Amino acid sequence: MADIIVAADEVAATKLVHDAETALGTVSKSGSGSLGPFTASWNASAYLANGTIDLISPNVIRVADCELHYTLGFTFSFDLSSILPDFCLPQVCIWIPFVGTVCTPEVCIDWPTISIPVSYSDMVKFTADFSLNVYLSGGNWLVDIVIVGIPSLTISLAAAAILVAIGTAASLVLLAVPFIGPFLAGAVIAITAAIGIAGITGLLGPILSLFVSGLTFNIYKQPKVFEVLPAALPLDPAVKVTLDSVTAAVVASDEDELVLTADISP
C-alpha cells in the first residue's frame, strides 16, 4: 500500500488545470506560410483559459470548451501590375510660334508591389483529451497532463472576419499609391478574391494548431526530498522524507477522482 494518497475530485481537478493554464502564460510563435497565392510572414501569440474537466478512468482528463485566445499579425506583398491595367498619361502636343509643335513625353505608371499588414485577435474553443505523465526531473516529481492528438478548431467565422480585415488594410495601403483612385475598389476585390476563405483557413489553421499540438500542463510539482518537520530544538534535526515513487491515475467510483500515490523513505 502507498504511504501517501492524495485525491482530487473534478472541482479540484478543474482548479489544478486552470492554475496550470495561468502558469503557462502567453506563448508566442512566428513563421511564414501560404496565403492563397501569396506568401505571408506572420507572428502570433496565444494563451489558454477556462474549460470544464471530466475525469475518465483510468488515464484521461477531458477538458471541454477550453479557450484559445490568440492575436495574429501578418504581412504579405502584392504586385499591383498583376491585377491593374497599364496606365499612361496621354501625350499632349501644342504648337508654339517660331518653334513648331512641341509634345510632352508619354508617361506610363509602373504599378508598385505593396506590402499589406493585417492584425486580428479572436478566441476559439476546443475540447481535447489529456493523458497523465508522471516523471522525475531535476530532483522534482512532476505530474503533467499531455494532450492526445490535435483537436478540431472551428475557424470559419474568423476566416471571414480576417478576409474583411484584409480588404480594409488593402484600401488604406492603396490610398497612398498615386493614381489608384479609379481602380481602388477593383484592386481590393481582386486581392480578397485571390486569397478567399480557403486561403485564410490554410494559413490560420496550421498556426493555431501549433499552440495545441503537444500541449502540456503541469498540475503538480513536489521536490523528491522535502522537509516535513522543522528542527524543534537546537539538537533536534529537521525530519525529511524522500519520495521514492509517484503515480497518478483517474479512479472511478461514485465520484471520479484524480488520485496521486507516493511511496516514501526517511
Describe this protein's structure.
Strands 2, 3, 4, 5, 10, 11 and 12 form a seven-stranded antiparallel beta sheet that branches. Strands 1-15-14-13 form a four-stranded antiparallel beta sheet. The protein has one domain. Strand 14 and strand 15 form a beta hairpin. The mean pLDDT is 90. It has three helices and 15 strands. The chain has 266 residues and is of the alpha+beta class.
Task: Name the features.
266 residues; alpha+beta; seven-stranded antiparallel sheet; four-stranded antiparallel sheet; elongated
User: Based on CA inertia axes, which overall geometry fits?
Assistant: elongated
Count of DSSP H/I helices:
3
Described by its quaternary structure, the protein is single chain
Q: Residue-averaged pLDDT, rounded?
A: 90
Measured by DSSP, the beta-strand proportion falls in over 45%
Give the strand tally: 15
Helix content: 10-25%
Report the biggest beta sheet as strand number plus sense, adding barrel if it closes.
Answer: 7 strands, antiparallel
Q: Which stretches are poorly predicted, pLDDT < 50 over at least 5 residues?
A: none
Radius of gyration: 31 Å
Q: Give the tally of structural domains.
A: 1
Structural class: alpha+beta
Taking the alpha carbons of the first and last residues, their distance comes to 17 Å
Spell out the helices and strands N to C: EHEEEEEEEEEEHHEEEE
